[in-house]
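At your convenience, could you comment on the folded chain following this short note?
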Amino acid sequence: MGSETIKTGRLANGEAQKSVHKERHGLSSNGMNGKHENLGSNRAGTSSSGEDYDLTMNTGDVDGNLDGDIEPVFARQGDLTFQDIHDNGDYFDEDDEDDSDWEPVQKHVELIKWFCVNCTMVNLGDGVICDLCGEHKDSGILRLGCFASPLSQDAGCSEVESEMKGKNKEMHSQLSASNSSTAIGFDERMLLHSEVQMKSHPHPERSDRLRAIAASLATAGLFPGRCYPISAREITREELQMVHSLEHIQDVELTSHILSSYFTPDTYANEHSACAARLAAGLCADLASTIFSGRVKNGFAMVRPPGHHAGVREAMGFCLHNNAAVAALAAQAAGAKKVLIVDWDVHHGNGTQEIFDQNKSVLYISLHRHEGGKFYPGTGSANEVGRNGAEGSCVNIPWSRGGVGDNDYIFAFQNLVLPIATEFAPDFIIISAGFDAARGDPLGCCDVTPAGYSQMTDMLYTLSGGKLLVILEGGYNLRSISSSATSVIKVLLGEGPGSELGNIAPSRAGLQTVLEVMKIQMNFWPSLGSSYAKLQSQWGAYCNTRKQIKKRQRTEPPIWWKWGRKRMLYHILRRLHVKSKGKPSHHSS
């Protein structure tokens, strides 16, 4: 561009005009070639398009606007440089521009996403409290377990921690096997079992589950402290073959040579998983034989991966080897003739049932969500009772809905679990203790509290004379699993549940489920007969009460009708009804 010019229009009122030097008022021009040129004073010129230009303004405005207050009016934009347009953009009429292809600049907004340490659920935004479970994103649950505050950030050594340590130091000293009644099975190598690559969110079966329980027990002074640790060993192939097929065992072993693998879409393995599974099974086997031999009174297997979904030939549901089945057979190898397994995990233990449904010496009782087979894994209906001469060896108590709480579980214990277990008269009792029916669990969505778990443990403790093995299964809310496990271990130590059982009133669905199971299991356990007749009358009274309530609701007008536009009509009809009822009868007495 040879010269850079601006063409101005004449003032509308036709007053005298003078040209003014552009540089004098700070309006320099910057051409496409990067050079700066100034327009001369009182001089006409030629634009790049060959047209004459004339930069003019009112004469009276010259002296008063030497400080840069002059506001030129541009008539044509076609002859302007890009710098002119940029410097004086406020004076151009944007309506004349064709902006049909204009798109707004998309401002990049970074979406904050974080996963709750307690329940693994995703949270969006810069908040610090989980929308699902109410846990602070930086809470101290992995350091203090369930004793950490859920609403505040972990600030190192807290008052709670100092207070708990002080109490524990005064009350308890490190106990040996000779004076401890409860053994704990744990090995840090089980923490190495993990999903190599996270998918959409952290896997619920994660090593933090054991860390949270261990932190709770340490803070409470239970372990280390009042409980006895047993040394870990890996289960042998010969022991595993009593439960699983050789092909299954080899499949699990193969994962130790692979960085990451999956048995099912949700059942992962890494190079440490096979070792962790062998350690878990070995701890459960040794705890069972140690308890049955009387060297300790009872025990808690703080193990992972869990096991009750693992069947004879298949790993599934986060489970690789069936720890409860291994423990049951280990107890029988130590001399137990009859073993009872009570499984209160929210999911049915399909693997444990498969392993023992033809074995009359092992009674398997499971309380789980079922919902007509719609809840994972879909097995465990009340009609599944065992087979091939072992009918009655499986007792399934399938809840028909979620949200089941303490009352329904304890009611089922009182009317099904304990009567059947008493008639069976086991030598040894194992609890498959999944804590995913606990309040707050993201997978189970039920409502059992730590007090409910301690009550159920206490009932089995009393039945077995304290000779009891509790094996960790599921449970995916760290606060729920750690507080529930701590409550259960306190019962094992002989502390009792802490509250007395009153009259338990089940929900309608809970009562119906118990009756359905009783009707089926009466064929194998005659002791249920008297309870069934009593509950049948209770069910009839309940149904009659419901009918009366519904009838009353139908006769009573709705509140909106009483107080709506027909309010006056309602009162008139009501008075007529009262008067008609108050008239003396025409019949003689």
